């Protein structure tokens, strides 16, 4: 998930956005930029200018800024799941168990989960571009230094540090988009960010696999660190300074809204659904690598890297999610999406490789749509302090990814791929039941606004 997208896209991968109106109201189909700001910049009006700046006279960022947004989306998800396709290779290097190797994903997603609620607050306080550039610099450095790891424990430490810097990239970028572009342009620019995050999630795995196949895994981390550094320079030059940003009073004010959300049953249910979504996706793509690297398939590292092209389906299906929700209602679309994902998982039990690839494609498509439905619920259910509400969602979402990478290792050891598929199907059944119960329709539900994109690449 392993996409889209949180920004808190967000669109793995995590920009999260949703319709502004409360449940039961209607809006025209399409993306609504306001929740993006509500969730990341609580208390900071979208067009609030910095002192001495005329917000109405501020020019709209040009094409270089749009390229920078795509680059930021790619950087946010280049390295989050980079070890997924490398796990069979790392097993030979470190002579570790599957459970131990899965921690190279768990540590990163766990760090993202812990840092996500605070990254938006830092962006609110210190500015979008400074937090974005600082996060990219830290991510570039820790990714490259991961190549110095002489043991699995050292690699885990670097992976943890990488995860701490990732949320600052997507939270600052999505907030910047909502503040600096006019409302009419925000959906298109957000779509560029989502496309970048999905492409980054795929390319990170693909580049790492190809470089490792030609040289070694250390070279893969150096190359990805260098790419992030190059993109850092591109973003620094291409993204104009913020003209409509106003800092929050203090970090405490940005975090003050957490407590009410923990007493909101509908939000708690939605947080559990987000947990299950990423749990399923990370479990699938972590253990299918071991499945296809073993007999009778014996895929090599290059072939396993190409397997992640199924992630690109997210670039196609996520924009359709809003139209489907507008026509059929979010709850029905969610159930249909999970059903498609579950059907795809069953196809992966067939013995032929084309059937497995088709199953993984269907599973990914369903997960991307389901994630779009879930993220769109959070701002509407929170109704106030949306920044902290989405921060908690992102935390639960990536906690699901952390546990989805590690916990199924026990099932893998005893029941193999079929056992992992069973785990995913059980989780998908639970989140379907939760969504059907928690998201009970009210008058006008079928016409609720279309959900915004998922948090990027999963």
Spell out the blueprint of helices and strands.
Layout: H1 34-40, H2 63-78, H3 87-94, H4 98-126, H5 128-145, H6 152-180, H7 186-214, H8 217-238, H9 251-255, H10 258-261, H11 265-293, H12 301-307, H13 314-328, H14 330-347, H15 353-382, H16 386-406, H17 409-438
Helix pairs in contact: 1-6, 1-16, 2-6, 2-7, 2-8, 4-5, 4-6, 4-16, 5-6, 5-8, 6-7, 7-8, 7-12, 11-15, 11-16, 11-17, 13-14, 13-15, 14-15, 14-17, 15-16
If you had to describe this structure to a student in words, what would you say it looks like?
By secondary structure, this protein is mostly helical. It is 69% helix and 0% strand. It has helices at residues 34-40, 63-78, 87-94, 98-126, 128-145, 152-180, 186-214, 217-238, 251-255, 258-261, 265-293, 301-307, 314-328, 330-347, 353-382, 386-406, 409-438. It is globular and about 60 Å long.
Question: What labels would you give this structure?
Answer:
458 residues, mainly alpha, 17 helices, 69% helix, globular, disordered N terminus, disordered C terminus
Structural class of the helices, strands and pairings? mainly alpha
Helix content: 55-70%
How far is the N terminus from the C terminus?
Answer: 3 Å
SS element count, helices:
17
Mean pLDDT: 81
Q: State the shape.
A: globular
Radius of gyration over C-alpha positions, nearest whole angstrom = 20 Å
The low-confidence runs, each spanning 5 or more residues with pLDDT under 50, are 1-56, 444-456
Number of E strands? 0
Largest sheet features: none
Order of helices and strands: HHHHHHHHHHHHHHHHH
**Strand content of the residues, in percent?**
under 5%
């Amino acid at each position: 998930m392993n996409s889209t997208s949180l920004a808190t896209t967000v669109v793995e991968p995590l920009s999260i956005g949703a319709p502004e109106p409360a449940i039961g109201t209607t809006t025209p189909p399409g993306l609504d930029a306001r929740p993006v700001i509500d969730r990341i910049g609580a208390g900071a009006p979208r067009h609030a200018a910095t002192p001495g700046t005329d917000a109405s006279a501020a020019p709209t960022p040009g094409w270089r800024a749009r390229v920078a947004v795509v680059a930021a989306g790619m950087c946010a998800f280049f390295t989050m799941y980079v070890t997924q396709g490398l796990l069979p290779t790392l097993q030979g290097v470190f002579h570790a168990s599957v459970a131990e190797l899965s921690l190279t994903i768990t540590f990163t997603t766990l760090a993202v989960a812990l840092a996500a609620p605070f990254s938006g607050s830092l962006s609110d306080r210190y500015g979008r571009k400074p937090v974005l550039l600082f996060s990219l610099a830290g991510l570039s450095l820790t990714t490259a230094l991961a190549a110095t790891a002489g043991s699995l424990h050292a690699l885990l430490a670097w992976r943890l540090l990488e995860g701490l810097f990732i949320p600052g990239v997507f939270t600052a970028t999505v907030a910047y988009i909502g503040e600096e572009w006019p409302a009419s342009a925000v959906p298109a620019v957000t779509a560029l960010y989502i496309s970048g995050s999905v492409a980054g999630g795929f390319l990170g795995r693909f580049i790492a696999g190809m470089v490792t196949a030609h040289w070694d895994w250390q070279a893969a981390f150096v190359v990805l660190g260098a790419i992030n550094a190059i993109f850092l320079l591109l973003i620094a030059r291409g993204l104009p300074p913020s003209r409509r940003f106003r800092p929050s009073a203090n970090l405490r004010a940005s975090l003050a809204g957490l407590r009410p959300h923990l007493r909101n049953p509908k939000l708690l249910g939605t947080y559990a659904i987000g947990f299950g979504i990423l749990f399923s996706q990370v479990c699938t793509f972590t253990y299918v690598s071991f499945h296809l690297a073993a007999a009778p398939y014996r895929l090599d590292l290059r072939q396993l890297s190409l397997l992640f092209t199924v992630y690109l389906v997210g670039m196609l299906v996520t924009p359709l999610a809003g139209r489907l929700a507008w026509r059929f209602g979010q709850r029905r679309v969610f159930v249909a999406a999970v059903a498609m994902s579950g059907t795809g998982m069953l196809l992966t039990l067939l013995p032929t490789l084309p059937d497995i690839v088709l199953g993984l494609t269907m599973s990914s498509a369903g997960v991307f749509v389901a994630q779009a439905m879930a993220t769109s619920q959070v701002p509407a259910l929170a109704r106030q302090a949306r920044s902290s509400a989405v921060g908690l969602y992102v935390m639960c979402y990536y906690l699901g990814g952390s546990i989805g990478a590690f916990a199924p290792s026990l099932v893998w050891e005893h029941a193999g791929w079929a056992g992992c598929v069973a785990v995913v199907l059980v989780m998908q059944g639970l989140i379907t039941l939760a969504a059907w119960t928690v998201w009970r329709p009210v008058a006008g539900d079928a016409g609720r606004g279309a959900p915004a994109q998922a948090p990027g690449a999963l």
